[in-house]
Amino acid sequence: MQKPEFLTDFTVISPSAQIDPARHGWRAKCLQRLVRLELPVPETVALPASTVRAIAAGQMVDCAGILGHFGDVPLVSVRPSPENPDWGGPATILNVGFNTARHDHLARTHGQAAADALYLRFVQGYAIHVARLDPDTFEGLEPNATGLREALRSFQQEMDEPFPEDPARQLADVLRSMSRAWEGTTARLLRQAKGAPSEAALGLVVQKMAQGIGQGISGSGVIQFADPITGDPKVKGRYLGQSQGRDALTKGDAIYLTRDPRGASLEELAPEVFAELIRHGAACRGRLREEMQIEFTIEDGRLSVLDAVKVQRSARAGLKIAVALAKDGIITQSEAVLRVEPRALSELLHPQVDPRGPRDVFARGIAASPGAATGRIVFSSQAAQASASRGEPCILVRRETAPEDIRGMHSAVAVLTERGGMTSHAAVIGRGLGLPCIVGASDIRLDAKDRRLVTRDGRVFNEGDIITIDGTTGEALVGAAEMLPPAQDGAFRQLLAWADEVRDIGIRANADTPADAQTARDFSAEGIGLCRTEHMFFDEDRLVVMREMIFADTSTDRAAALARLLPMQRADFGQLFEIMRGLPVCIRLFDPPLHEFLPHSREGLRELAEALDRPLSEVTRRAEALAEFNPMLGMRGVRLGIVLPEIYDMQARAIFEATVETVRAGDPVVPEIMIPLVSARREVELVKTRIDALAAAVRTKSGVSFDYRLGVMVETPRAALRAGEIAQHASFLSFGTNDLTQMTYGLSRDDAGRFMNTYVQEGVFPEDPFHILDVDGVGELLLIGAERGRKTREKLTLSICGEHGGNPESIAFCRNAGFDYVSCSPYRVPQARLAAAHLAL
Ligand code: PEP
Ligand code: MG
């Protein structure tokens, strides 16, 4: 068959027309919905993607045929209509069809000035976007007869032909130019970055122009009914008399829509049109099931609705809008849950830098813990504590943080470190505390001696200077940025309650302190999945006793020091049990190498010698003897528990004694005790024997009976591989994917930040495996461990408690693998609850 000379595959949009979003694009479909709602939409023709593609390839479309639908001498606009509005598209072109005859006609009906301005605008748009002439020649011309003459002359000069007079030819040129722009490399890359498939197609819509220029009340504007930042119901937008397109949003002399003490408003100028817009807004919301922004024109008092797009919105506005739509019965609760991206929730938990304010960025790093805070720079934990005691917010800036900085971190409002990655100390603690944190900011250099930091481009900041940490973007800003408050309001709680109704995997929190536990409870975690007990030993009074214990020469001396720690630990656990009342609490026995508890400076060692009443030389020698070449692979975790069993004994006794109290108080808990860094079954046997004996002793002594569960933390590849035999002695396995990732890759979690960027950029790793679970390697170990463990013990409880626990991807992985729960930092619990609900829907 012979190809037709002109393509005729286009459709006039009417209530019954076949408009398919996959073929004609979202805009065409949306316009049809507006037509069905009987909104005053000007005549519109939709071109499907197949036609647009053919146009790009050089075929001609029947433009005269299209224009025939719009009556005689029409002016039209052409707008892009990709399948998904986020994919962008070429700029809209207005006033296609303008020529000398149209100009003369308009001069008679609308006046010379309006006719000149409109014609000029079209010539400019056509010259720059369609004929691709130099914008400098055409921009900045006065919108009058002289400007118009000059534009037409320049066009003729550059193109060697007069400005085209035939509307069909103009339309054909515009369609060709827009379809080719869509095929360009830059446009392609831009939309692919927003998730568009490589073959994403473009539809186009040709719409009869409704003039915003002319007699009576004429103009154009944009209106929406929800605040884009807060999501609260609110009429927002602007109107500009004698204008077209989105001019009202860019020109300074636009007026308000609703009555406003600051100036004139459309509501006063044209109350009936305003009321009509409000009615249309409500119809759109109800029937399109979305908050829409409406583009409109008024021509001599008559309203036309040209277009409607989804209101652009912040994360908090998105949540508020989804919940409001569900509450009004417009969408279902499940749909509201699905409309909110889990990761977007972190924005609502903390203050955020207001995106509308100015930003002066002086350093960038890894966005390790979201939220933003402003404070004065301090370079040491002591200075942070001093600042906090003066009531002055401060930001702790360190090369990296260590356990001894914990109190400084508690005193700071945010943390910035030069080194480190997603699971470095600062990052883990920052997330736990809900403290905005940037790590691995490698373009700053710390000069701790002179107490200043210098950026790569030579900017210098001294202690006391005010900065803002934006932990959501990983940017450090000069001065105090404008902030938005957190938004854990009724809508937030409502959405999560709906999420909990459908979710089918448990969510617990990693919580070490009563404050963490309280946060976990407030965010409705179903228990504590990991309590890292070592952090309990860094408080001033305990650290001294801890060091005495470390330096004890004999088992008796060690027992004496531990006896002093026992009531403190008992009180710690008692508090956690009380806060988590009724919910499971999983306590991990002591994990880090002892060396971490010793001072690192000479000054610190001197103070320690004083406190212990021993010679400095001896203290120094003992501290050196405890140092290891590779402490993370050294004497830590269960190894310490086997070599120095008294520590675990003390902890187990403290747990059981605190448990007895809960039984006596009538609210019994069943504590879970977890052994870290296991690699062999025998390790578990040895620890279990002692712990069982201790439980029996406490039961006998107290006369109170209680239950407990003993489990193993799977953090070494060997533990995953031998999970079958390990599960003989464990009632649960919790995968510690921080160490497991470190050991599977042989990649230091504290040092990987230095080259991670390069590795990810070069595509060696698709993502930082400390951040996003490596499902191929580490994931395989999880699956092996889970399967072998459950083969031995069918009811074995399985969970993950590494930093990955809160990520939607890891939650999906664990859910598929049949895990019982995930455990993550308290501040990530809301995101995890929502992500889990998405998986179940
Ligand atoms: C882990 O290794 O995944 C874990 C949770 O323990 P930590 O981060 O305390 O080493
Ligand atoms: Mg670990």
From TrEMBL:
A molecular function (GO) term: kinase activity
Keyword Transit peptide: no
Entry binding sites for substrate: 532, 588, 715, 736-739
Gene3D superfamilies xrefs: ATP-grasp fold, A domain, ATP-grasp fold, B domain, Phosphoenolpyruvate-binding domains, Phosphohistidine domain, Pyruvate Phosphate Dikinase, domain 2
E.C. code: 2.7.9.1
Binding site for Mg(2+): 715, 739
Residue ranges of every copy of the PEP-utilising enzyme mobile domain listed in the record: 392-474
PROSITE patterns: PEP_ENZYMES_2
PEP-utilising enzyme C-terminal domain mapped to chain residues: 488-839
Protein known as: Pyruvate, phosphate dikinase
Organism listed in the record: Gemmobacter aquaticus
Source organism phylogeny: Bacteria, Pseudomonadati, Pseudomonadota, Alphaproteobacteria, Rhodobacterales
Gene: ppdK
